Amino acid sequence: MSRINGFPFPFTKNQYAYSNDSVLLDPLKTITVTDDYKSEIELKRKLLHKHHDRCFRSLPLSIESQWETLLLIFSELASRKPDSFIFEKKGNECFFQNHFFEEEVTFLFRDASTIDLEPLDLVGRHVQEDLIIMGDRHDGLFLEAGQLCFPSNWSLAFVQGMEFKSIHSPVPGIQSDGFIQKVERFISKIRPGTAWERKNWSITVTNKLDTPLETYSEWGKHRKEVTAENAGDLIHLRVEVQRLFRLPMNHDVLFTIHTYLLQLNDLIQNESWLKTFYQNIKTLSEDITEYKGISTYRTELLRFLENHMEKERMER
Ligand code: HEM
To answer: So what's the pLDDT on residue 177?
Structure first.
């Protein structure tokens, strides 16, 4: 099946600017199971095994919201994919089955002694999404727990315990005009039991999902290798489908991030995507180009895209 099918192409206009483009989700969902489920879960579990400290962090006060997240996600998996997952809860006795891996878990809800991992660390091993819990305190939203295997150049260890505005301080221009305060107010008003979705995009010069800040020296160096000739193979559009959900019992916010990669050679098969992507890269402001790490190869990337658009014109 073509990689294009189902890819969440993020551009709706020809010029990109940061905006709070979140949309209300109806029907409600916090996670999505795709054809890459098995391989991505295997990769996640490998990363968690080798680099647990990098991929999982929690503060003790997040524990109730972690349990609530576990209950929500196990229930959602079972109701949306009943052939692949089963979840039963009788009183506090819980049973979860994952047919992809022939696994079963039995535990008592809110009894930490009945599971080997923290609840968020357990449930995160059954979904492709990275999972973040933002504690909603009287003075702001704080990152209180996270299972993060596929970050786009950021570090969970660095932002653990940080407030929403400080987390976003490296993003250019986002503090001006009170933009980030408005986003925070929007999140603080999300009603219990409702979910919102937005997309974020970046570009990677590898097909790796795990690009944490901690290993930048391994994957970041490939940015220098891009030429107009090899861009189609090397460059991948990376899209994060991000969902925000207000946990009804604890009133904290669950933030889920599902990461998709599309090789440029696949993207250009869609003529309209090729043109829109080209326009967005061409007109991207210098500060965002720099922040997203595109500056080194933007000229080569544009040449590659122009060559393809020219080829298409000739063939018409
Ligand atoms: C509440 C959950 C959220 C968390 C935990 C979060 C976290 C982050 C982090 C860690 C970064 C990378 C910062 C860095 O470079 O070190 C980031 C980037 C960013 N975030 Fe958020 N974010 C959240 C929600 C939102 C929402 C709702 C918006 C809506 C506008 C938003 C807008 C952005 C933008 C525009 C960037 C820059 C992305 C880029 O250009 O690649 N974030 N966020």
So the answer is: 82
